[in-house]
UniProtKB/TrEMBL annotation:
Lineage: Bacteria, Pseudomonadati, Spirochaetota, Spirochaetia, Spirochaetales
A cellular component annotation (GO) from this entry: plasma membrane
Sequence ranges assigned to domain ABC transmembrane type-1 in this UniProt record: 77-268
UniProt organism field: Alkalispirochaeta americana
Subcellular location(s) of the protein: Cell membrane
Name this protein carries in UniProt: Carbohydrate ABC transporter membrane protein 2, CUT1 family
InterPro entries: MetI-like, MetI-like_sf
Main subcellular location: membrane
Transmembrane domains' residue ranges: 12-39, 81-100, 112-134, 146-168, 189-212, 247-268
Keyword tags: Cell membrane, Membrane, Transmembrane, Transmembrane helix, Transport
Family: Belongs to the binding-protein-dependent transport system permease family.
Amino acid sequence: MSSTSLTRQKDLVAWRVFSYIFMVAFTILTVAPLVWLFYSSLKPHPEIVRNIFALPRSIHTANYTVAWERGRLGILIANSVFYAVTATTITVILALSAGYGLAKFQYRISSLIYTFFIMGLLVTAHSVLVPLFVMETRMGIADTRLGVLLPYVGFGLPFMIYLATSYIRGIPGAVEESARIDGASYLQIFWHVIRPISAPVVATMTIFAFLANWNEFVFVFVLTSRQSLRSLPVGVNAFAGGMSRDYGLLFAALVIATIPMIVFYIFFHEHLKRGFAAGAVKE
């Protein structure tokens, strides 16, 4: 074996060792805070303040009961599920429809409309909070579920339309031509041909939109005032503010808020990987 081959083999081994070390370190940095959060939620407040990293001397499950009842977390979780599922469904349907139109129907104004949607990526939520609040107040939809869903969908559409349009552009035109020869309408082509082929990007859009809507804080915090309309992130934030300074309750509420996302990832992580593997962004 030549010296060049030995050098390359050593470099490959060194790179693999470095990669494994990096992955192990990254895993520890990711998992360790979750482990610390969980066992800290089983400690009373004085014990947490005394030694924040120590293991609990005894299991204190009362934190979960008190946090659930005092924070009305059941209502907040139901609201978060409603907002996330409804906004995600509407966003994905509209984005896939718009992506099909922008990718397959080339008009003079198509590029302008596409650019208009993409420019929405440059708009931040904080820059439109005041005019959005004033507009919804005048329309009579402030402090309502509709007033929360509209900005969720509006701010989610630009990125989702970008994903859908980029993916559908990569679908061969021959697929549509064969459907047209069989007498299918554009609506039938979209529903029976484009939609099934776009399953990977639909899964990717669904996961991204759901996570964004579930974790969204600013819109619900500003546009609602009734506790019955607020979402889980806003409710958990109350434990760190005026409701309580009890770290045990705060950590218990954070664990409860984290569990749905972990369950969601367990069930849908394969779909996310397939979406990336299939090329969620095709040009």
